Amino acid sequence: MRTPSRRVTSADVAREAGVSQTTVSFVLNDTRGQTIPEETRRRVLDAAKRLDYRPRASARSLAAGRSDVVLLALPGLPISANLSRFIEQLAAALAGHGLSLVTHLAEGHGRQLPDLCAAVDASAVISLIPFDEETTEALHRAGAQVVLGTGQQARAELQEIGRLQAEHLVGLGRGRLGYALPAEHASQWRVQERLRGVAMTCAERGLGELLPLAVDLDPAPAALAVDEWVRAGVTGVCAYNDETAMAVLAGMHLRGLRAPDDIAVIGVGDIPAAPVSIPPLTTVGFDYELTGRDLAQTVLDGLAGAKPSTQDSISRPLLVRRASA
Amino acid sequence: MRTPSRRVTSADVAREAGVSQTTVSFVLNDTRGQTIPEETRRRVLDAAKRLDYRPRASARSLAAGRSDVVLLALPGLPISANLSRFIEQLAAALAGHGLSLVTHLAEGHGRQLPDLCAAVDASAVISLIPFDEETTEALHRAGAQVVLGTGQQARAELQEIGRLQAEHLVGLGRGRLGYALPAEHASQWRVQERLRGVAMTCAERGLGELLPLAVDLDPAPAALAVDEWVRAGVTGVCAYNDETAMAVLAGMHLRGLRAPDDIAVIGVGDIPAAPVSIPPLTTVGFDYELTGRDLAQTVLDGLAGAKPSTQDSISRPLLVRRASA
DNA sequence: TTGAAAGCGCTAACAT
DNA sequence: ATGTTAGCGCTTTCAA
Question: Could you tell me if B110 lies within 8 Å of chain A, comparing CB atoms?
Fold first, then answer.
């Protein structure tokens, strides 16, 4: 028969410590410009601990006009151990400054993100999948003070991925390249930028024209694409992602072709299955761990007022050499 | 030189629509027991849309005494594609009822979880790894109305997955089975339950003793495991997940063995790459759409007051037949 | 060094 | 059917 057990409030702590709410607030927030004698301080801290006091977030942010929630939007599907470590890094770094990180997993972020941002009252939103101007604007209107993962920067990054793939294949002496487009979904924008990165490199390096083909996640249809590449003299294929790359590999297998001898294949993502594909997949991974701390700092700066939150590269693409290319 | 651009408030909407704040609240929340004439309704809705009004979450939950945030605590490290899909389903189902799902990734949930729970003012906390009484209690104190930490139920489910794998292999006439344990990470608890499901089935069906072996996501070491299985007369292998299964396939390939002729291999997860593994991987998938809905319903019930939130199965395992077994 | 008091933006009795 | 009003729990001037 427990009473609805009202949550412990700051007033309770004040009473318990024999001070005013104001003092409690000062102590608990370590408010700058306030001198609290050590003794009072202890009294408050003790009382708070004794009562297991936890400020109510909603009241806090309503009063202060800002929340300490940071929202991280993650691309759909799998989250590698790598990425996971990055997230924990980021969370830890932010926590060190009193900020809480929560994540949101979603394929594409449509209207939802701004809504979610408002729903959790996030003061910063970070995304690993870049968003367009419109979304950025919406997020700001939804209350996000800092929005990271935008615009031009992202475009360049996406292209960089394609370049990395192409350069590697060029280094392998391939004369004409193919591009394996994902047959389904996948944000067209990303697909286009990545593709463009490859195409530009082909042009710059004087290779034959890039031959993009859609590739289903099914061996038989994939084999058809392979046939077409073979017919066109393609000897290297950049795939939009690792899954698509593996589909190409499966198609080649069906035709008795081998990577990289017949066609070199390179993916993107370095998914857990990549090292055990047949043959092990060469791909472009991302160095997330490294960037965790940087990113946290950027958020902090942004929140502190450093206006043009010009985010750095948030995904540092990195070639992962294995057997397929 | 934009003014700090005060966010649009409910009062703004009221003014714009020429009604009181109360009416705005009634309309926007679709408050039961209030009769709002269609015309007023439209006026308010229009004004809200015109102003791109978004209620401030903190104010809402402070006033209402409850938030519409649901926190999902995920086990550390990697998040498989299928888990990710499940999360999206859950999020969608909850969103359908006005609840927002955010996730938290962390190795173990120590003191942090209750803190985070308070920080985002979550009214429900769900965890895929069961937590103890103490944590549950702390979460409640931190403001969570509903705490779901999949207990016994989960155990049975995990075993069911193993049974499904084993039964399929038995149906293929395999006499002795092997189990491919993930070499790294993966919550030991889950691994053990899944393994147990297989072991129990082996015992019940009078097969030889199950032979579990750790399998790295690397072809060469995987081949070693394969050697050992071959030596022991194993003709069917259940893998902890699809990645591990693919590692086994890669190991077999290295030895010139074929699935399912030499050894039948079955995974868990039905990752996107599964249909394009060589050969296409037979595996156990999950009906996420269905279970996402169920879980969402459980949360809703709990929030609505239905006390003993006995959650149903959250992962409905389902055999996906392809070529490898 | 501490406290009193005025809100933050919203909901929900309680009028009307 | 709609408006008035009183908080929700906290931060933050401004006084003392």
Answer: no
Q: Give me the CATH code for the B69-151+288-310 domain, please.
A: 3.40.50.2300
- What dotted CATH number matches B155-287? 3.40.50.2300
Q: Which amino acid is at B299?
A: V
Report, as an integer, the average pLDDT of B36-48: 83
- Is residue A162's pLDDT more than 60? yes
> pLDDT class for A294, splitting at 50, 70, 90?
confident
Q: How far is the C-alpha of A126 from the C-alpha of A295, rounded, in Å?
A: 9
A151 in Cβ contact with A133 (< 8 Å): yes
Nearest CA-CA distance, residue B298 and chain A, Å: 21
CATH 3.40.50.2300 domain span(s) along chain A: 69-151+288-310, 155-287
Q: Which two tokens stand for residue A205?
A: 């390096």
Q: Please state, rounded to an integer, the average pLDDT across all residues of chain A.
A: 87
How far apart, in whole angstroms, are the C-alpha atoms of residue A121 and residue A119?
Answer: 5
Amino acid at A159: Q
Inspect the interface and report whether the beta carbons of A102 and B102 lie closer than 8 Å.
yes
Domain with CATH 1.10.260.40 in chain B: 10-55
Q: Tell me if residue A304 falls in helix, strand or coil.
A: helix
The sign of the dihedral angle between the CA atoms of A107, A112, A115, A116 is: negative
pLDDT at B135 over 70: yes
Cβ of B54 within 8 Å of Cβ of A100? The answer is no
What's the predicted TM-score (pTM) here? Answer: 0.77
CATH number of B10-55: 1.10.260.40
Q: Which amino acid is at A36?
A: I
- What pLDDT does B1 receive? 34
Strands (E), chain A: 69-74, 100-105, 124-131, 146-150, 177-182, 211-215, 236-239, 264-268, 282-286, 317-320
- Residue with more model confidence, A14 or B247: B247
Element (H, E) at A162: helix A151-171
User: Cα torsion at A302, A306, A311, A314 (round to 10°)?
Assistant: -40
**Nearest residue of A to residue B8, measured between CA atoms:** A141
